[in-house]
Each structure stands twice: as C-alpha cells, then as structure tokens.
Amino acid sequence: MINLLSSNMWIYVVVAIICIVIIFFATIAGLVPMKLYMKANLSGAHLSAMKLASMKLRRIDVSKIVDAYITARKGGVKIKVDDLETHHMAGGDIDRVVEALITAKGAGIDLSIDTARAIDLANRDILKAVQSCVSPVVITSPPISAVAKDGIELQVKVKVTVKTNINSLIGGAGEDTVLARVGEGVVTTVGSATTHSQVLENPDIISKMVFKKGLDNGTAFEILSIDIADIDVGRNIGARLLAEKAEADSKIANAKAEERRAMAIANEQEMKARTQEMKAKLLESQAEIPFAISEAFKNGNIGIMDYYRLKHIESDIEMKNAIASSNVLGYTEE
C-alpha cells in the first residue's frame, strides 16, 4: 500500500513538473517573438530572447528594430540595438539613419551613430546629406536683377554646385541662405561695373568675385563652384529714373506756379475789397459834407460868400484837371 502511494506521488510530481515546464515555455513563447528571434540570429544579428521580450513589454515596435538592426549588420555598420531602440523612442527615423550610415561607410565618410542620430532628430534629412556628399548638388538661382553704373539692368541666373558639410549640418544655414548670399554678390559685382557691356563681355568676373567672398561660411554646405547660367539685358533703369525725376520736377514746378497764381488772385481780391471799402467810406464822408455845411451855416462858422468861394475853388480844380487830362491824352496820341 505504501509503495503504491509512493509511486502515485512520483507520478503527480512528474506531471506537475511537466505542467510547469509547459507553462514556462508558453509564457516565454508569449513574451518572445520567436519568428523575429530566429530571423535575427539566423541573419547573423544575434539578439537575446530576454532583449526581445523586454522590448515587447515596453510596447516597442520590435519588428522595426530587428529589421533595422539586421540591415545595419549586413551593411557592415557596427551599431548597438540599444542605440536603435533609443532613437526610435525619441521619434527618429531609424531606417533612414541606418541607410545613411551604410552609404557613408561605402563612400568612406566618417559618420558616427551619435552624429547621425543628432542630425535626424534636428529634422535634417541625414540620408540626403550623405548622398550630396557623395554626389554634389547643383542649386539654380532665380533671375537676379542687378543694375550697372550706366543704368542698364541685367537679369543673371547662377548655378551653385555644393556638397553637404556633415560637421556643420546641425545649426548651419540652408540653401536659401546660400542663394541669398549669391544674389547679394551678383548685385554688388554688377553694380560696381562701369557699363553693362563689361559684364556681358566677361561674365566670369561675377563668378570669380562671388566665389572669393566665402559665401559658405556658417552654412551646412561647401561651395564647389559658381557658374553663370544665363544673362539677359533688361530695362534702362537709369533713363527711367531720370524721366521720373523730370516728371516729378515738372509737377513740383507746376504746383509752385499754381500756388503763386492763387496767392496773386487772393492779393488782388483783397486789394479790390480794400478799394471798395475805401470808396464806401469816401462816399459816406461825402454824404456827410452837406450836413456839415448846413451845420456850419446854422452855427455861423461859415458865411454865404465863403460857401461860394469854396464852390468856385472846386470848379476851378475840376477845370484844371480836365485840361490836364486832355493835354495828356493829346500828347499820347501824338
């Protein structure tokens, strides 16, 4: 009886152990993505089951990390899976970073994983930057308007060949700054020319002068060459400015003349008003003379003979004035 119980107990223990082993492997199978585990290790990118399980528990896209890690190892790039995991959690594009590292290694460009991650997190296209280091990029400017000293406008198109400077990509200015500096150099060079014919005869003076200015300082690029793509003759800005100045001077002169005419009219009107006022006062004074004479008669200040003598004097004065007027008119006619 005791032997039977002992044998049954051993059976229960074995069954319990088997159950524990099954549960353990089921748990491991649930936590560890076995397909990815087998894929990574068979591809030569060895990853532990615990590493994959920890990434899955932290809700990380394990498939994306594993694929990027396999690509990096196949491309000969030494990289840690922790770096990929950290960059992915920071919101970076691990596929683009890995591809950029592989391209840089193939082109012999010294690019570290930390630099690549920093550039990618700075919202710069690290893959495009590496590709432009291998194959320089040509930037074509829009038509740049510049005026020579003779007043003739020139429309200049410039092609700038640049390659990316990886070391200054973070914090360096972009293509817009390069084009703005090139445009400034073109305007300065053309503006210093005595005539536009000098620029048309030797267009390379623009590229030489602009290239000497070191326009790539503080930018994310290294300028390899500056070439003039096209030059067109535009408007005669000098003649246009002179014509506009002459028109403006004419308008100013007309305005001043109109102002003087208005002032003369106003003065004339004022003189007429004053004359009318003086005439009115004279008529008013003349109207008071008879009353004054009458008052003088009443008060005995003047006699009748004095009055007649006064009238005689007035008649004499009127006659002399008439004679003088007739003599002046007669002399004028002769």
Structure report:
The chain is an alpha+beta fold and 334 residues long. A hairpin with a 4-residue loop joins strand 2 and strand 3. The protein is elongated, with a radius of gyration of 53 Å. It starts with a helix and ends with a helix.
Summarize the topology:
Layout: H1 2-31, H2 34-42, H3 49-57, H4 62-74, H5 81-89, H6 94-107, H7 113-121, H8 126-134, E1 137-140, E2 144-147, E3 152-164, H9 175-191, H10 196-201, H11 204-212, E4 221-236, H12 237-299, H13 304-333
Give a brief description.
The chain has helices at 2-31, 34-42, 49-57, 62-74, 81-89, 94-107, 113-121, 126-134, 175-191, 196-201, 204-212, 237-299, 304-333, and strands at residues 137-140, 144-147, 152-164, 221-236. It has 334 residues and is α+β, with helices and mostly antiparallel strands.
Q: Sheet bearing the most strands, described?
A: 4 strands, antiparallel
Number of helices: 13
Pick out the low-confidence regions.
none
Listing every helix as H and every strand as E from the N terminus to the C terminus, the arrangement reads HHHHHHHHEEEHHHEHH
Beta-strand percentage range: 5-15%
Shape by Cα distribution: elongated
Termini separation = 181 Å
Helix content class: 55-70%
The overall pLDDT, averaged over residues, is 76
The total beta strand count reads 4
* Helix/strand/pairing category: alpha+beta
Rg (C-alpha, Å): 53 Å
